[in-house]
């Protein structure tokens, strides 16, 4: 194919052109959040300047326009995920809220004593803690699936842990620390043989490669707009029509009801019964703009560009004395979590920041992943489509300088 040139995408993203500490910004914290193209920024401003209204209420022109834009956002998310219909998409604040929604509706209604929830050891805390809280409440068990040394999920252990007690398997589509992309379609098919439901956390996946939820066969899929070049505060839960139809509503309030009396309430149909209150209307409109922007590129070419950057970064970082990268699974997104002998991760991040290079240091909200390697903190460079090999060179040069500086 023609390949993907990041320069055109960079032109769309204003913040990439600001200096930080006197140097051009090198944004390598995309795992935390991505930077926004002007198409998203301008869409948000235009919504408030020309179309702002609450939705599903009032019979005036702006309400109709805002409602149409909100529902166009739902249709765009459904198409982006390969979902059956827009009705399978519930808007949430993000991945965390989407997972909590499933835990508190499906989980509370269906889970009982002795039931088991399997989660992989590489999950983000948002795909662990809601299940832990649910398990405690329902007297169910949360069971971790171990990792291999390369950061992949141990498939034999997974097969052994599955049983007729397994009610849910919760898996990341891509790890935010190790970058691992587990074989979630195969794992889903296996889990379904035991009658378990499968939730896939796509927070780190959707920006990097095309996703088709029907091909994956999962019951639930979640993502956050802000990791997809869109606004913060908006994300989505996909559920199969069967799964969503069987779930009780979650929060009560406006927008999610059909009729309310003091002795009786009837709920709006799916997905509206899961969207109580005024949602992030501009966020939905901005999310659609982000999806439109991302899908205007050749996704396979974008994935090839990011994969080439990953391999280049792996090679170059390996030349820095004392540097070790965590996670070398063959299927991996461009996330480089590393330690540097003799330097605390916070010191590494601070040194890089002084040169305008943004990486994250800490536990990355995935403490079990780091503990697997005997660590409680590491530095992480996480790449996106607008990153370049020159930026990788700047990262490597700065790290080399730090090791050569002595103390
Ligand atoms: N899952 C993964 C794999 C993540 O990387 C993140 C964000 N770092 C989340 C879930 C949580 O996403 P949010 O904070 O947007 O809800």
Any overview of this molecule?
The protein is 39% helix and 17% strand. With 407 residues, the chain is α/β, with parallel strands linked by helices. The strands form 5 sheets. A 7-stranded mixed sheet has the order 4-10-9-8-7-5-6, sandwiched between helices. The chain has a 4-stranded antiparallel sheet with strand order 13-14-17-16, with helices on one face. A two-stranded antiparallel ribbon has the order 1-2. Helix 4 runs parallel beside helix 5 and helix 11 runs parallel beside helix 14. The termini are far apart. Bound molecules: 4'-deoxy-4'-aminopyridoxal-5'-phosphate. 4'-deoxy-4'-aminopyridoxal-5'-phosphate binds next to helix 4. Its cofactor is pyridoxal 5'-phosphate. This is Cysteine desulfurase. Belongs to the class-V pyridoxal-phosphate-dependent aminotransferase family. Csd subfamily. It catalyses: (sulfur carrier)-H + L-cysteine = (sulfur carrier)-SH + L-alanine.
Topology:
Blueprint (H helix, E strand, L loop, with lengths): L5 H7 L6 E2 L2 E2 L1 E2 L10 H14 L9 H21 L7 E4 L2 H16 L5 E5 L8 H10 L2 E5 L9 H7 L4 E7 L11 H10 L3 E5 L11 H4 L3 E5 L10 E5 L1 H5 L11 E4 L4 E3 L13 H15 L3 H19 L5 E4 L8 E6 L4 H10 L2 E2 L1 E3 L4 H5 L6 E5 L6 H16 L3
Parallel strand pairs: 3-15, 5-6, 5-7, 7-8, 8-9
Antiparallel strand pairs: 1-2, 4-10, 9-10, 11-12, 13-14, 14-17, 16-17
Bound molecules: 4'-deoxy-4'-aminopyridoxal-5'-phosphate (PMP).
Protein name: Cysteine desulfurase
GO molecular function: cysteine desulfurase activity
Organism: Streptomyces gamaensis
């Amino acid at each position: 194919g023609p390949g993907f040139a990041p320069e055109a995408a960079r032109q769309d993203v204003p913040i990439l052109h600001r200096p930080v500490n006197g140097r051009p910004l090198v944004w390598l914290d995309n795992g935390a959040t991505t930077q926004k193209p002007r198409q998203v920024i301008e869409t948000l401003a235009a919504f408030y300047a020309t179309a702002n209204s609450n939705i599903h209420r009032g019979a005036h022109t702006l309400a109709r326009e805002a409602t149409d834009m909100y529902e166009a956002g739902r249709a765009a998310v459904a198409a982006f995920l390969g979902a059956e219909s827009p009705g399978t998409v519930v808007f949430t604040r993000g991945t965390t809220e989407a997972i909590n929604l499933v835990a508190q509706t499906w989980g509370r209604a269906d889970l009982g004593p002795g039931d088991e929830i399997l989660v992989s050891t590489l999950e983000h805390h948002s795909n662990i803690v809601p299940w832990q809280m649910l398990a405690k409440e329902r007297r169910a068990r949360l069971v971790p699936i171990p990792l291999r040394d390369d950061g992949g999920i141990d498939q034999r252990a997974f097969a052994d842990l599955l049983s007729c007690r397994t009610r849910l398997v919760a898996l990341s589509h891509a790890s935010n620390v190790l970058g691992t992309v587990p074989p979630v379609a195969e794992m889903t098919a296996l889990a379904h043989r035991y009658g378990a439901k499968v939730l896939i956390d796509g927070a780190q996946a959707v920006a990097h490669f095309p996703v088709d939820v029907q091909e994956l066969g999962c019951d639930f899929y979640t993502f956050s707009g802000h990791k997809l070049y869109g606004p913060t505060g908006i994300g989505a839960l996909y559920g199969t029509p069967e799964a969503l139809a069987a779930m009780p509503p979650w929060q009560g309030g406006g927008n999610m009801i059909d009729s309310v009396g003091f002795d009786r309430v009837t709920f709006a149909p799916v997905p509206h019964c899961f969207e109580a209150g005024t949602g992030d209307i501009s966020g939905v409109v901005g999310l659609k703009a982000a999806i439109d922007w991302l899908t205007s590129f050749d996704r396979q070419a974008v994935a090839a560009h990011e994969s080439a950057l990953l391999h280049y970064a792996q090679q170059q970082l390996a030349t820095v004395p004392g540097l070790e990268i965590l996670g070398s699974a063959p299927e991996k997104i461009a996330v480089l979590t590393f330690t540097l002998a003799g330097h605390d991760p916070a010191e590494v991040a601070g040194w890089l920041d002084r040169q305008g290079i943004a990486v994250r240091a800490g536990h990355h909200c995935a403490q079990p992943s780091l503990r697997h390697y005997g660590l409680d903190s590491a530095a992480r460079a996480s790449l996106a489509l607008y990153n370049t090999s020159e930026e990788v060179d700047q990262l490597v040069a700065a790290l080399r300088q730090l090791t050569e500086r002595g103390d």
